[in-house]
Every structure is written in structure tokens, then in C-alpha cells.
Amino acid sequence: MTKRAPFIVIEGLDRSGKTTQIETIRQRIQNSGRDVVCIKFPDRATPIGQMIDSYLRSQSDLDDHVVHLLFSANRWELASTIISYLNQGKIVLCDRYAFSGIAFSVAKSLPTEVESPPSDLPPITLPWARAPDASLPAPDLTLFLDIAPQVARVRGGYGEERYEKEDLQRRVRSVFGEIGREMSGEDRKWVVVDAGLSLSAVSQEIWGYVEPLLDGLDSSVGRLWTE
Ligand code: Z5A
Ligand code: MG
Questions:
Q1: DSSP string covering 14-79, please?
Q2: How much distance in Å is there from the Cα of 140 to the middle of ligand 1?
Q3: Which residues line ligand 1 (CB under 6 A)?
Q4: Which residue has the higher pLDDT, 211 or 113?
Q5: pLDDT tens, residue by residue, 178-201
Q6: Most CB within 10 Å of its CB: which of 110, 131, 145, 149?
Q7: Considering the chain, what is the average pLDDT of its residues?
Q8: Which atom of ligand 1 sits closest to the CA of residue 145?
């Protein structure tokens, strides 16, 4: 049986270096003579991605539950493409995935220092947030780039988009911590990388996790949160 390629996800807070590291890994994989494709969520090019883009740039307002489902739908738009790349032997590197979806949506429902107006709708919990992403293609490896928001902020400052605020990033980090505790197991499919180190130290550590997967896997593509 021919092997399929691995599905590798990079997660992390804003400015943790995800896009920079994806590019470095892409080059190293390409130099090793293998096929590699990079994807990124949100994919702002699709019709749903355009709605998300408008929301993130504060050009439209949507209820938190609605925007959560749009982010998930945006992943489902690409789900069969991801599986087909992997089965064709193309390594998929993915910049943010379902874990960002959960972390940001749950973080928005956590209590803040400034009291927010009461809502008629229930807060977003981890199980509620996970549900629409269940059965999506499961990553073979998720690298979580961990960085303190105050260190990330120094890297050129946060931008102007809706979520680019230090207080929210702190809450997002705590939810990512919870997701990490749930995901970490013997199988080493979720690993935490100290993204506060130098660019080369971070990429060296990442390569140590990526390289053993490059020759492909015998198993078929897994499904998120189905067990
Ligand atoms: N979101 C969501 O709510 N729900 C979902 O389901 C999904 C996403 C998928 C848009 O994301 C928002 O969507 C995001 C989460 C939410 N909101 N926030 N915040 P995006 O992907 O469009 O934006 P982003 O990836 O978070 O931001 P970013 O600025 O692209 O961050 P990055 O990719 O991690 O960082 P970078 O561009 O690689 O590096 C930033 C700078 O730091 C740059 O100048 C680098 O040269 C520098 N850098 C990187 N690494 C280092 C090291 N090691 N040392 C020193 N300097 C470094
Ligand atoms: Mg980025």
C-alpha cells in the first residue's frame, strides 16, 4: 500500500511566528524533494471567508455563535481538498485550524475585567465550540507556538483587527492551555514549542518533530474528536 502524506498544523497566538515558521518548513521540505502545500485559516478568499474577513476588520457585526460556525464552515469548505492532497502524497502545512476556532470563541465568553452587557444567548463552552469541527480531517501533528502576549506584542505590535487586543490574547492563551491538556497524550500529536526563542531555535525544534513524518503514514487520515 502506498503511504499518504502527513497533515501538519501550526497553532498559536497572534504574532507567535506561525506564518514565518510555515514558510521555513515549506522551504526545507521542498529542498528535500517532497511535495508540500500550505493552507491558512481563515481562508479569506471563499464566500464564507469574505464574511469572516469583513467581521475581523470590524466592517460587519455578527453574533459570536454565528461567527464561530462561519469559521468552522470555512474549514469544511476545504476538508475534502485536504484529504485529497494527503492521498496524493502532498504534505499539508496548515496555518491555524479548529483549535484556534475553539480558543478564540470560548475566550470571548470568559469573564473580562470590564463588565460586558448581558446576553440572552448562552456563553460558548468548549463542548459547544468543538461540535461543528468534529469529523474534520485530524492533524497528524499540531505544533502549538506558545508565547506570552506581552512578548508577542513587542514584535511589531498587534494590528487593528477585532481580536488583536492583549486582554483577549491572554484569555485565548488560557483556553489553548486547556485544549493542550486535553490533546496531549502518548502519541505526541500535540506539542508545545517555546515561540519566545530565536527564529532559528524555534525552527530547529519544529524540524525535529516534522522530519520523522516526512516519509508518510500507512494509516488513513483521521477524524477530529470522533473517539
Ligand atoms: N480565528 C478565529 O477566531 N477562529 C478560527 O477558527 C480561526 C481564526 C482559524 C485572523 O488570523 C484571526 O482569526 C486571528 C484568530 C482568528 N485573530 N487574532 N488575533 P490570522 O491568521 O489572519 O492572523 P494571525 O496569524 O494571528 O496573525 P499573524 O500576525 O499572522 O501572526 P503569526 O503568523 O503568528 O506571526 P508572523 O507573521 O510569523 O510573525 C509576526 C512578526 O514576528 C514578524 O515580524 C516576524 O518576523 C516576527 N517573528 C516571528 N518569529 C519570531 C522570533 N522567533 N523572534 C523574533 N521575531 C519573530
Ligand atoms: Mg500569520
A1: TTSSHHHHHHHHHHHHHHTT--EEEEESS-TTSHHHHHHHHHHTTSS---HHHHHHHHHHHHHHHH
A2: 22
A3: 12, 14-20, 41-42, 56, 71, 96, 100-101, 104, 155-156, 163-164, 198-199, 202
A4: 211
A5: 999 998 876 879 999 999 999 999
A6: 145
A7: 94
A8: 34
